[in-house]
Write a structure and sequence with these properties.
Length: 286
């Protein structure tokens, strides 16, 4: 008779996110991404969405107490190596999550500021954005906005600074650098701004900290429109942090992983492509 030996658990990542029945974005994207990297995802539901691959039709925010209770029960049971926060759904939920994570200041926290869906459906109003800024940004290790979210969160500081005209061709980068500085001044340690929504043959993503640019990486621009690429990137970043990498290395690895999931994306419905988080399991089929 063999003796049962318990396997060592993989690194554990706690995810706060909304559900997405398409499996493209949100909680489902995060769990798939983390599983693909060899992490175990703890999943706290913050909202339930009604959507297809074209867009989000509606969402129901989870009650704040229910979010806090879901999180506290697993945090007290298991050692969490990183936390990832995606869609939140209500101001009360932001406050509840901020209170829970404040009890775990040593766990690295990745905040993906989900403001809209890929189609542009609103997932966070102005009040929710300001709660994110006041309550969660100061506790964030890495904020992962796309360039549109970065400008909205930083309230487009370049426009406000009169007479500070950016140069014609370096304008976008200069403006995003100003946004990054502003977001870091608001309290997060690092900002990874993604550039898929900017012009150019390549997508340029830049990681900043208090000293400025940590690294800038360029990726071949892929032709599709993708559902859940931001969730994949932020979850992968949390996963690599949980696996023991530092922020600079984790941000590079997360980009490389995400680009591969987009390269292998498929279009299961009538809307956007879905990144293949398990691309490596299908590679032999090609
Ligand atoms: O991709 C951002 C995102 C995050 N979370 C949920 C979503 C979306 C976009 O549609 O539905 C639940």
């Amino acid at each position: 008779m063999s003796t049962f030996v318990s396997a060592t658990p993989p690194p554990i990542v706690l995810v706060f996110a909304g559900t997405d029945p398409t499996g493209g974005a949100g909680l489902q994207a995060d769990i798939l991404t983390l599983a693909s990297l060899g992490c175990h995802a703890l999943s706290v539901v913050t909202a339930v969405t009604v959507q297809d691959t074209v867009g989000v039709d509606d969402f129901l925010p989870m009650e704040a107490d229910w979010i806090a209770d879901q999180a506290r029960s697993v945090l007290e049971d298991m050692p969490v190596a990183a936390i990832k926060i995606g869609m939140i759904g209500s101001v009360e939920a932001v406050a509840a999550i901020a209170e829970v994570v404040s009890d775990y200041p040593d766990i690295p926290l990745v905040l993906d500021p989900v403001l809209t869906s890929g189609r542009g459906d609103t997932l966070a109003n102005e009040e929710l954005m300001s709660a994110l800024i006041d309550l969660l940004l100061p506790q964030t290790t890495v904020l992962t906005p796309n360039s549109i979210e970065a400008r909205r969160l930083a309230e487009d500081p370049v426009e406000e600074e009169e007479g500070d005209e950016p140069e014609a061709d370096s304008g976008a980068v200069a403006d995003l650098a100003a946004c990054a500085r502003q977001l870091i001044d608001l309290g997060c340690e690092f900002v990874l701004i993604t550039g898929a929504h900017e012009q150019g043959a390549e997508v340029v993503n830049t990681l900043y900290n208090t000293r400025g640019v940590v690294h800038r990486q360029s990726w071949e621009r892929l032709p599709g429109s993708y559902h859940g690429s931001g969730c994949t990137l932020a979850a992968a970043l949390a996963g690599f942090l949980a696996l023991g990498q530092d922020v600079a290395e984790a941000a590079k690895e997360a980009q490389a992983y995400t680009w591969k999931t987009l390269k292998h994306a498929y279009r299961p419905g009538m809307g956007q492509f879905i990144p293949d988080r398990m691309y490596w399991a299908h590679e032999d089929d090609e």
